[in-house]
Amino acid sequence: MSENLPSKRVLVLNRLWQPVNIVGVRRAFSLLMQEHAQALDTSNGGFQMLDAAQWIEFSLANPPESDYDAIHTVKMRMRIPSVLLLREYDRVPNKEVKFNRRNIFERDDHTCQYCGHHFQERELNLDHVIPRDQGGRTTWENIVTSCIRCNTQKANRMPHQAGMRLLKKPARPKWQPFVSLAEEQDPEPDWQHFIAK
Ligand SMILES: [Zn+2]
User: Most exposed of 4, 56, 143, 147 (fewest Cβ within 10 Å)?
Assistant: First the structure.
């Protein structure tokens, strides 16, 4: 799998078809390929559950329409599912979200928290809202996703010193079952069956 993965997010359902998490492309494929989850094919208006091998076949028969929907493997362009169904109830990935670069980008939806634009991962930086040399800490509450341009513009200043504003106050993500889903701003069309409005 290449490093520059699309920012598409994948809804994860438990065995009772309840939404339990939203994951990025890498985690989604790891769940699918390790047979922890099946992918949902809604293309025929129904819900077909496909395991990894069946999903590969499905991708060959129905090639992804855009790069947003595709990952490139050595052999093919594979379609990214919108919804996964966990095989085992106890594999609910709802434990505490790890504090790392990828998860901060995921929390912020790959969107620069200053200019509001969406970027590929390679075009993004992490920004200390309160700069480190002014006592800012490396925590969920003080680190945001920033594009390189905004990061450079802000430099070693507080946002207001640089004449910039945060889109929203950064916080520790609470990806617990059913909680954050209600606040989803930008759900994939296929999620509508599973997320209450
Ligand atoms: Zn920006």
Answer: 4
